[in-house]
Prior knowledge:
Oligomer: single chain
Structural class: mainly alpha
Order of helices and strands: HHHHHHHHHHHHHHHHHHHHHHHHHHHHH
Shape: elongated
Number of strands: 0
Amino acid sequence: MADVAGVTVSPSIGETSDAQKNVFDLGAFVGDLALEEDPSSDDISLEGLEQELEECKNNDVVANILSKGTKLRDYTKGVENDLRKVELDSIQDYIKESDNLVSLHDQIRDCDSILSQMETLLSGFQAEIGSISSDIRILQEKSMDMSLRLKNRKVAESKLAKFVEDIIVPPRMVDILVDGEVNEEYMRTLEILSKKLKFIEVDPLVKASKALKDVQPELEKLRQKAVSKVFDFIVQKLYALRKPKTNIQILQQNVLLKYKYVVTFLKEHGKEIYNEVRAAYIDTMNKVLSAHFRAYIQALEKLQLDIATYNDLIGVETRSSGLFTRAREPLKNRSAVFALGDRINILKEIDEPALIPHIAEASSIKYPYEQLFRSLQKLLMDTATSEYNFCDDFFGEESIFYEIFSGPFGVIDEHFNSVLPNCYDAIGLMLMIQIIHKHQLIMSRRRIPCLDSYLDKVNISLWPRFKLVFDMHLTSLRNANVKTLWEDDVHPHYVMRRYAEFTASLIHLNTERGDGQLDLNLERLRMAVDDLLIKLAKNFPKQKLQTVFLINNYDMTITVLKEAGPEGGKIQMHFEELLKSNTTIFVEELLQEHFNGLIKFVKSKASEDPTASPDKPITVAEVEPLVKDFASRWKAAIELMHKDVITSFSNFLCGMEILRAALTQLLLYYTRLSDCIKRIVGGSALNKDLVSISSIMYEIRKYSRTF
């Protein structure tokens, strides 16, 4: 068939190009096609032929046949001949290969036999594998069952092992607890015993076990032995706290805290013994600390420097001594009683270590009570902080601290209650109030609340005492005996100096806290001293001396307030106003003393127009004596004023300021006089006697340069 196809196709392909070159009209060719008549053609239908021809229009083979005019029947015969030839050729090829085909057939038959045997063999294997799979499944089930049993046995073994471990009492453990020393190994063994005791008490299954009946008596004996042994040990350590010169804090930190589990064990397994240990520690520390604080207070009392007594008040005169009172140094010479001075430094040294009495006593140094108070409170704070932390760590109970310190608190309160009623040092009391406030801040930063109520109680007791002493000072001013206090001296009075130093000290101490009640009390004190100062001034016979006395006292008060710091506030402003007003009064009095006529004339007539009153005009004769008098002695008068100021005022700078104010006022008066003379008819005749303004200015500058 392949050859036929080749024969048929080859000529058509060869002629394809000619068919493409010649325009072929299939319709025209078919129209001229002559077919032989076939008797059977009547049965052949040509319906659809035209459509089929149209479909074959583009077929190259059909087009080639039709273009050559070949008859279909001839072409068909040619094709049949070609097919027959090809068939014969194929038969010859088959005959040539017959031996090979026979051999191939035999081989196929042999393979089929072998495959049949293999099929039989594999079928046997399949049956055996099915049997093995069943065995494997059985083994797998057995393995899973054994694995589950093993797992259950391991769980049971672990629980049983833990039970045995928790309940048995090893001989080594017994030896350590009975015969061993209390050390780190003993502590570890004690923890193991505690776990065993808890184990048999907590688990209900353990309580029902038969093993417990054998072990429980032995565990109870060990518990009793351990409780007894650690009780003896801890009591022995507590007794060491009572030995003299024992450093309690070092013993607590380096010894007792190492064995704090002993207390935990007693608390859990020997409550009665624990209560005995607790009571023994409380009793020991209460007595030891009470004795320490009592001894420390007694040592501090030897270092106390008495600052003020009942009579050391602002308005009290203490120069004379009674029959039954020892002579004392006059209080006005001991103004440091009311001055803060270096005592303020204690607030900067608030966290310094407490005083060591025997060292201070060896150096023969005495201290104001606030120094001793700070040392006592500092020692109390440090001791309380250490003890509070130890009790919390060692016993796990904060309440123990308050039971221990009931004794030391009582000792300190007893001392304080004996000192406070005899304390008349208001500055010292205010310093102690400040110390307590700063100590409260320190304890707050330490986050130790154990002294909160104690410090509040001390603070509450200090304020009423301070108020009492302050009111004593206030009363002393209000009830002061003016005749006794008065001295024929215009310089600052010692009572006023006491007041100034006292007020400056309290203002300075109140700056940080800003207590409004204290400000009100200081205002009351200021009003009282104002009244007393006016009464003292009235004892001077001359108004000028009264004014000088007031100026000196006001100036001294302002100076002291300024030296204390810029916190003088309203009180300082009040005295500055008084100083200013009294300075003006003194200037007028001083000028009237030396230039009375000039001042009267200027005040009464210099401001008038000399020609305004025709009935009584100002004449040259009226003014001439004043001009000549001034010209003759103005320098001498200024010198006298200078000497007067120098001797009258204790503060040189204040005196020079007053002198300058007086000379300036004098210049103003004389300038007004000169202006008046210029307006008088014929006043030019006095020009030769007038002192030039520049001369007076020169003299003023000369005295100004002296300071």
